[in-house]
Amino acid sequence: MLVLFAHPSLERSEVNRPLARAASEVDGVTLVDLYAEYPDFAIDVDREQGRLLGHEAIVFLHPLYWYSTPAILKEWQDLVLEHGFAYGSEGKALHGKLFFSALTAGGPEEAYRAEGVNHFTIRELLLPLEQTAIMCGMIYLPPFALFGARNAVDQGRIESHLSDWVRLLEAVRDDRLDIARAQDLPRLNADLGAIIAAN
Question: Is pLDDT of 108 > 90?
Fold first, then answer.
């Protein structure tokens, strides 16, 4: 599993940094810190395409920035997901691979609905990523999301979120995730117990 991590101000991160560290410690996970690897945004397309070919599941790990990903993940998509590689009549390199975002959002979950301050659910806001996955022939899953990230440390919610994160990564790695059931959830961690099969 390939986890592409993007946080432009990592020194201020209370949640994404431990999520990245936890992912890096899971056997079978390749963690790539895009801002550390490409501080000048000069993305090595051949290297990144090679990484995609070498993994069956791809995860974007990031904070939600203005209802989307941080800039380097957009640059990565623009350059790496080329016609003839990721999409188009000859672009079948990503067909059948699993894709989802693991994200943190500053606001509470109730802010992400029609009546909330953000007017849309998190799934609706991520529709461009879902369509990208569809265009590339990938299997799209809803996000693994932590809401209220600004208060998560003070409220003691980090440890349980980290535990669920590792549990999800291991389930994907071990092919124990009920894909069809997971696709219907608003977010993957809405009901992990129901979508992860026992060992």
Answer: no
Q: Is the pLDDT of residue 136 over 90?
A: yes
30 phi and psi, to 5 degrees?
-105, 115
Domains of the chain (ranges plus CATH)? 2-195 (3.40.50.360)
Q: Report in angstroms the alpha-carbon separations of 130 from 54, 107, 120, 151, 165.
A: 21, 22, 15, 28, 20
What are the b/e assignments for 75-104, b being 16+ CB within 10 Å?
Answer: bbbeebbeeebbbeeebebbeebbbbbbbb
pTM: 0.94
Exposed (0-12), middle (13-18) or buried (19+): which is 113, by Cβ within 10 Å? middle
